[in-house]
Every structure is written in C-alpha cells, then in structure tokens.
Write a structure and sequence with these properties.
Elements (H helix, E strand, L loop, with lengths): L11 H19 L5 H11 L2 E2 L4 E2 L3 E3 L5 E3 L4 E2 L3 E4 L4 E3 L4 E2 L4 E3 L1 E3 L3 H6 L2 E3 L2 E3 L4 E2 L4 E2 L4 E2 L4 E2 L4 E2 L7 E4 L4 E5 L1
C-alpha cells in the first residue's frame, strides 16, 4: 500500500486499522477524550508523529492516521481530510485552512479492476512554512515546496516548487514570493 503498489482496501488487516482510526477520531472529534492535553494525547496515538505546538481543530478525518507526520507549530483548521494510504508529511510552521484535503489514494482507470476495488497510493509532502487556503485539494503524489502559498479552492495536481503563489483548478503558479 505505502509502496505505491496496487492493493484492495477491504483487506482484514486494513479493516482493523480502520476500526482503530474510527474510535480515535470519534474520541478526538466529539471531545470525549477530555481537555486539550487529553485530546492531544489521542492525536499522539492516532498520528505517526505530531510535532510540538502543532494543533488540529476538530473535526478531523483520516484513513489510518499512522502514515501522517505533522511538523512542529503547524496549524490545521476545521474539517481537514487526510487520506493516508501512503505517507503524508506536513512540515513545520504550516497553515492549513478549513476543508483542506490531502489525498494519497488513486483508483484504477480500467473499469473492471476499478469495480473489483483496486487502488494504490502515492505520498503527499507539504514543505515547511506552506499555507494552504481553505478548500485546497492536494492530489496523490504531489510535493509542495517550502514557503509556497496555495490559494483557496485550488486543486494541486502536480508538484509546486518552493516560494511561489499558486491558484486555480488545476493550480498554476502566478508569481514567485
């Protein structure tokens, strides 16, 4: 799965991982975990790594959680979706607006294999000090370079270099920063 090879997400082991994620996300999103320290501890159990001073506002959804690394001092706003069948790496000091989606899974183009449920996943990497505006969608296999800003509602279908402003669907570089 994490190696970018085709897999079936209905595998028993993956279903067990999904059950773990459902319980942890529910505890986090409903506040059942308690106060801020307890909720941060739930994120620590859910995610592969949560940097010091990083914060994710609920509600938050992911596929597995353990493939997600969030750098220090990063802020993730409401309604973030991180589908982490492959690794999702978010750098330090990143700002992620509400409703942002970081997506690693991709589906088979062949109709028969798609009906059978085959998918694969490609990693997503967000560099340090990136700002993703509200509603941004980052597609499988994309890397966004450090100090880049992506405008609200943009769909990032390919890599963006460091230090640019990109907007649109698909996201296009409009200027250097």
């Amino acid at each position: 799965m994490r190696a970018g090879e085709w897999y079936l997400p209905v595998d028993d082991e993956l279903r067990a991982d999904t059950g773990r994620r459902i319980a942890l996300c529910a505890a986090y999103n409903t506040g059942a975990a308690g106060g801020p320290e307890e909720r941060r501890a739930v994120l620590g159990q859910l995610l592969g790594r949560l940097g010091e001073g990083a914060w994710i506002r609920a509600p938050f959804q992911c596929d597995y959680g353990y493939n997600i690394t969030i750098g220090p001092r990063t802020f993730v706003n409401f309604n973030a979706v991180m589908l982490d069948a492959a690794t999702i790496t978010v750098g330090a000091d990143v700002r992620i607006g509400p409703g942002v989606q970081l997506l690693t899974p991709t589906h088979e183009l062949d109709a028969e294999r798609r009906r059978e449920g085959w998918e694969r996943a490609l990693p997503v990497t967000i560099g340090d000090n990136v700002w993703l505006g509200g509603g941004v969608i980052v597609c499988p296999g994309v890397t966004i370079g450090e100090n880049t800003v992506v405008g609200a509602g943009s769909v990032v279908t390919r890599d963006l270099p460091p230090g640019v402003l990109a907007v649109g669907n698909p996201a296009r570089i409009v200027r250097e920063l």
